[in-house]
C-alpha cells in the first residue's frame, strides 16, 4: 500500500483527540491484539477483563502499569472509561478499543506509550479510516467524506460531506459502472461474433446508450463548481483605489473592527484575509492595498501583492467612491480587472454624489452594482446576496443530491465523460468496436478510481496522507 510501514495485520494505536488541555482525551486501538493489550493495562471496577466485555459497552476503571520486577505493585496512570467494539461491527471492522482518560498531554501520552510498549504500532495518518476502506466497510468516496466532515467550514459544506458519507455519490458512480460494464460486454460480444454475421447490439442502440451515460456524467460535472465552493470556500478580493472604503467594507462584512481604518490614504499596506460564512458558504474575504503610485519599496511590494491576489480570486469587489469623481486610478484598476468576475460596490452613499460613471459604461454593462455605506451599515446584506448570486449563477447555495466537491473527482469524471464522447465519435466514423471497447474500459477505470475499485496504492496513499493521526 505504498508505505512500507503499513501492515494490515498489525495492531495500531494513536491519540484520537487534539493535543492540549481539554475535558478528556481518547487513545484508540485497532487490530487483532487490541483486547489482549487492554487486558494488560486496564482494571475495571467489577474486576472483569476487557476481553470478556460485551461489544459496544463502556466500562469504568483504572489504567495501570503492568507488574514490574523493580516494583511489587502497579502504578496508576489515570481513571478512565474503556469502550469495546468487536469485529466486524466497528469503524475498522477489526476489534477496536477506546480509552477515554482525563484531558491534557500527560495522561494520554503516558497511556499511548504504555500501549506502544506492548507490541502495538503507532498508527499512520488516516490509517484507521484506511483500514475501514480496505476491510470493505466504506469505499474511497466515503473515506474522503470523513475528512470533509472533519474539515467542514459551514453547515452547507457539512451537508455535502454527509451526503458522500452516506454513499449517495458512490451509489451513482457504481450504477454508472454497472451500465458501462453491460455496454462493454455487448461491445466485446460484437467483436467476438463479428465474423459470424451476428448483431449483438446495433450501432444506433449503442450510440443512444453512450449518449445517455455521457449526459449523466455531464450533469454530475455541472455540480462540481458549487460542490467545490461549498466544501473549500470561495475567495473574494476587495479592490479599488486608496481611501474608497475597502477596509471599512471588510470590517462591515466581518461585523468586527479587524482592519485599521483612517482618513489617510494607503493605511492598508498588505493583503489581509479573513473567513466569513455567507448563507452557509465559506468565503475568504481579502482586503488589498489601494496605493497605485508607490512611494517606497514597501508600497511597491504591496501593489504587486494586491494585483496577484486579484488575479487569483473568484470574485473581485471593485469599490468606487460615491462622493468623488471617477479618476485615472479607477480606470487603471478597471483595465486590470476587466476580464475578472466583478461586483461593483459604490460606497459612501451617505455623502453627496460626485461620481459619474458615463466613461465606464462598457465596463459596467452586465455587472451587478450595489450601492452601500460601509460606515453607516447600509445595504451590506445586498453585497452578501450579490456574492452568492455571482458564485452560484443565481441558483443559490442549496445542497440537493450528490455533487462533486473535490478536484480529484472532477478530473476523473471529466476523463470518463471524454472517453464516452470519444466512443460515440468512433461509432459515428464507422470504426471497429475494438475502439469503442478501449474507451469504455478507460471510462470504467476512471470511475473505479473515484470509488477505489481500481485505485492504485499511490492514489490511496495520497488520499489518506491528508488525514490526521488517530482518524
Helix content: 40-55%
Query: What is the overall silhouette?
Result: flat
Mean pLDDT equals 87
- As a whole number of angstroms, the C-alpha radius of gyration is 30 Å
The total strand number stands at 13
Percentage beta strand? 15-25%
The major beta sheet can be summarized as: 7 strands, mixed
Report how far the terminal alpha carbons are from each other: 18 Å
Low-confidence residue ranges: 264-269
Reading the helices and strands in chain order gives EEHEEEEHEHHHHHHEHEEHEHEHEHHHH
Helix-and-strand structural type: alpha/beta
**Number of continuous helical runs:** 16
Strand order of the largest sheet: 3-4-5-6-2-1-7
Helix and strand topology:
Elements: E1 12-15, E2 24-30, H1 34-41, E3 42-44, E4 57-64, E5 76-85, E6 96-102, H2 105-116, E7 121-122, H3 127-134, H4 140-151, H5 155-165, H6 168-192, H7 203-221, H8 224-232, E8 234-239, H9 246-254, E9 272-278, E10 281-287, H10 297-312, E11 315-321, H11 328-337, E12 342-347, H12 361-364, E13 368-371, H13 380-391, H14 407-428, H15 433-451, H16 457-464
Parallel strand pairs: 1-7, 8-10, 8-11, 11-12, 12-13
Antiparallel strand pairs: 1-2, 2-6, 3-4, 4-5, 5-6, 9-10
Amino acid at each position: 500500500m505504498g508505505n512500507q510501514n503499513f501492515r494490515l495485520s498489525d495492531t495500531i494505536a494513536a491519540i484520537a483527540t487534539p493535543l492540549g488541555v481539554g475535558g478528556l482525551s481518547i487513545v484508540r486501538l485497532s487490530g487483532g491484539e487490541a483486547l489482549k493489550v487492554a487486558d494488560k493495562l486496564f482494571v475495571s471496577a467489577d474486576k472483569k477483563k476487557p476481553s470478556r466485555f460485551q461489544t459496544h459497552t463502556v466500562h469504568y476503571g483504572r489504567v495501570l502499569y503492568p507488574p514490574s520486577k523493580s516494583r511489587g505493585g502497579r502504578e496508576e496512570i489515570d481513571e478512565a472509561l474503556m469502550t469495546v467494539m468487536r469485529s466486524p461491527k466497528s469503524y475498522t471492522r477489526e476489534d477496536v478499543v477506546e480509552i477515554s482518560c482525563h484531558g491534557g498531554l500527560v495522561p494520554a501520552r503516558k497511556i499511548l506509550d504504555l500501549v506502544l510498549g506492548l507490541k502495538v504500532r503507532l498508527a499512520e495518518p488516516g490509517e484507521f479510516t484506511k483500514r475501514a476502506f480496505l476491510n470493505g466497510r466504506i469505499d474511497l468516496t466515503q473515506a474522503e467524506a470523513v475528512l470533509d466532515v472533519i474539515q467542514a467550514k459551514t453547515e452547507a459544506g457539512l451537508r455535502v460531506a454527509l451526503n458522500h458519507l452516506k454513499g449517495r455519490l458512490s451509489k451513482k458512480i457504481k450504477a454508472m459502472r454497472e451500465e458501462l460494464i453491460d455496454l462493454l460486454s455487448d461491445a466485446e460480444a460484437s467483436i467476438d461474433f463479428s465474423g459470424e454475421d451476428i448483431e449483438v447490439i446495433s450501432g444506433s442502440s449503442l450510440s443512444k446508450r453512450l449518449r445517455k451515460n455521457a449526459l449523466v456524467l455531464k450533469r454530475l460535472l455541472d455540480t462540481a463548481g458549487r460542490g467545490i465552493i461549498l466544501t473549500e470556500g470561495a475567495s473574494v478580493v476587495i479592490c479599488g483605489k486608496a481611501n474608497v472604503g475597502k477596509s471599512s467594507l471588510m470590517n462591515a462584512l466581518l461585523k468586527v473592527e479587524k482592519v485599521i481604518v483612517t482618513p489617510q490614504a494607503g493605511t492598508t499596506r498588505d493583503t489581509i484575509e479573513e473567513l466569513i460564512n455567507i448563507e452557509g458558504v465559506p468565503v475568504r474575504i481579502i482586503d488589498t492595498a489601494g496605493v497605485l503610485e508607490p512611494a517606497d519599496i514597501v508600497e511597491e511590494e504591496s501593489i504587486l501583492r494586491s494585483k496577484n491576489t486579484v488575479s487569483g480570486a473568484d470574485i473581485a469587489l471593485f469599490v468606487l467612491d460615491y462622493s468623488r469623481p471617477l479618476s485615472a486610478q479607477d480606470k487603471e484598476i478597471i483595465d486590470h480587472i476587466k476580464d475578472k468576475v466583478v461586483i461593483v460596490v459604490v460606497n459612501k452613499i451617505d455623502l453627496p454624489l460626485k461620481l459619474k460613471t458615463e466613461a465606464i459604461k462598457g465596463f459596467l454593462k452586465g455587472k451587478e452594482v450595489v450601492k452601500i455605506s460601509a460606515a453607516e451599515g447600509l445595504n451590506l446584506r445586498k453585497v452578501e446576496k450579490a456574492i452568492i448570486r455571482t458564485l452560484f449563477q443565481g441558483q443559490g447555495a442549496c445542497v440537493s443530491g450528490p455533487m462533486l466537491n473535490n478536484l480529484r473527482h472532477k478530473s476523473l469524471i471529466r476523463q470518463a465523460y471524454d472517453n464516452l464522447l470519444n466512443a460515440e465519435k468512433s461509432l459515428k466514423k464507422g470504426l471497429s468496436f475494438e475502439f469503442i471497447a478501449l474507451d469504455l474500459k478507460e471510462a470504467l477505470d476512471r470511475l473505479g478510481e473515484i470509488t477505489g475499485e481500481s485505485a492504485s496504492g499511490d492514489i490511496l496513499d495520497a488520499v489518506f496522507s491528508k488525514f490526521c493521526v488517530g482518524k
